[in-house]
Amino acid sequence: MSSQLSKRAKFWQSHIEAAKFFRGSAVEYCDREKIALQSFYQWRYRFSSSKIAYRANAFAPVEILPASNPLDLQECCVLPDPKWTAEFVSYLIREMAR
Question: Which residue has the higher pLDDT, 56 or 79?
């Protein structure tokens, strides 16, 4: 396979990444997404065994906004759930350790 992932590999890569954050089992995830469980397992094995090397982009676009009054942030912004934030940071740390 070329250095770029095929459309099919990208499709499965996105599902495998999403399933990592799904609170249920792989069976429940595949049932919810209407994808074949056996194919999911095969692609997960391919990615985990490094037969297809991939790495999610470690960078995300950031928009820098002008400074504002901290009191205004409380009124306009809803912070994410702390548990989600902790899981997200944990994921980032694991990815950086690779």
Answer: 79
The model's pTM? 0.48
Helix (H, G, I), strand (E, B) or coil at 26: helix
Give the Cα separation of 80 and 87 in Å (integer): 11
Q: Which two tokens stand for residue 78?
A: 């809803």
Length of the chain measured in residues: 98
> Using CA atoms, how far apart are residues 54 and 49, in angstroms rounded to an integer?
11
CB distance 12 to 43 below 8 Å: yes
Largest CA distance in the chain: 53
Could you report the per-residue pLDDT of 10-56, keeping only the tens digit for each? 899 899 989 988 888 999 999 999 999 999 999 998 888 765 555 55
Rg of the chain over CA atoms, in angstroms? 18
Question: Any idea what DSSP says for residue 81?
Answer: P
Residue 11 falls in which region: left (phi positive, over 0), alpha (psi -120 to 50) or beta = alpha
